[in-house]
Amino acid sequence: MSATSATPIVRADTLAAAHARLLHDPTYQFGFTPPPPPPPIPDWLRALIRFLGQAAPYLQWVFWGLLAVGLITIMVLLAREFLVYRRPARATQETVALGAEDWRPTAARARALLADADRLAGEGRFDEAAHVLLFRSIDDLEEKRPRLVVPAYTSRDIAILRDLPDSAGRALDVIVRHVERSLFGGRSLSAGDFADCRSAYEAFAFPGLWSRR
Hints:
Blueprint: H1 3-6, H2 12-23, H3 43-86, H4 93-97, H5 100-103, H6 107-122, H7 126-144, H8 155-159, H9 166-183, H10 191-205
Helix pairs in contact: 6-7, 6-10, 7-9, 7-10, 9-10
């Protein structure tokens, strides 16, 4: 018997019945609903697309113009910050008119500040006491010369301003070094550290310790 004669023959009615069962099997899908048509494009969007198409040759110039303006703005801001930070504190007529004694705060104001700092130190808050001495000393400078201290300056920049009397700069430098060690060095100040700052402020504030070279 040949291989062909061994193949079973499927009757037509059997095949039709199987096909009918397949068509009625709910697990299969033979009919597909066409998707709904897309909504029409609004008139305003058509007008916008048409406008952009007409303006396309000019949009690249607008882009490069805005980019140039942005770059120029950034360069101007950076240059201004650099010049403000690097601006030397040149002696002006206003500075020359101020004598060494004119830079000092009034005795009453200095004693009030020392009283505030001593109160904090008496509570063991030596860091805060030193901060008060430094920040209020800078306030005194800003009151004497409103344009001398600019926001870009750090405390150390202020301490080395050439317009200050040398003794004042040295006194501020002592306070700044202790405050920086407290703020950035992670080391709490001691009673001795505050005593150094207090003595430095007295040199900054009271007569007899302010003299230029």
